[in-house]
Amino acid sequence: MVDKLVSFNVWLDNIFALVWAAALAFVVFHFSVGIVKGRFRKKFIEHQWPEHDHRPPLTPKLLHGVHMAGIIILAITGMYIRFPHLMGARTFMRNTHYFFMIVVTITLVWRVWYAFWSKNKDWPEFAVGKKDLQSLVGVLAYYGYFSNKKPHVAKYNVAQKMSYMLFLVMMLAQVFTGFALLRYNIIFGASPRDILIGWWLGPIVGGAPMALWYARMIHYVLNWMFIIMMTIHFYLAASEDIPCTLDFFGIKEMPVVPGHDHEDIPAEEPAPELQPAPEPVV
Fold this sequence. Notes:
- By secondary structure, the protein is mostly helical.
- The chain is 65% helix and 0% strand.
- It has a domain at 56-120.
- The termini are far apart.
């Protein structure tokens, strides 16, 4: 059984390394196609970036910056914990991982509270509606270079909304499995591992060690998924709307054009009203 688990772990290592390499190759290919199609010249040379009618609020910007930095550090330290290559650094990396695990958890809870319960709650901006789904084909056609028109029916397009929702689900799962790996008795004499998985998942899968392996495996898979998705996210943020990206990180203020926000889909023209037929003349 142990040999099978070891083989499975090695298989995971190889598969996700190949997937990440494929994601990097895709980014290079996609950017190259943009040069051929003229999108690179339009944006980076002629500076024809999307127009916005407002700047991002300060609180989401700060939370996004802290959250992003924390996830990057967690990804690096998490990989080091799995593949230690510097003698004596594993304890430092593990403690750093634990610290930023708390930071990311706090910013996650804060961001969810801001989205749903703060005075400036913005959850409707991320909700996927009927019009968003109708624009999905057009958005994919734009990113696939089949069209130069990127439809927007809201502040974020449907692909952005779906990816942000996926990020949220992944973060919740990562927080759960991350705390489930803590074996220190810090909660009334019990460890987070005992509370989260020991009392219910252990008996189901054949013991606490097996439950711990499942939690660690899911945590590792999610770590790779974050690395791959953030690679693509960074590329799109840098290639699609640099002014907004720079503003989001406080590097350069983004110009604002009142009354404009991306490329909105024009509203459908109302159907003409039917006029009653004239009465016949007797």
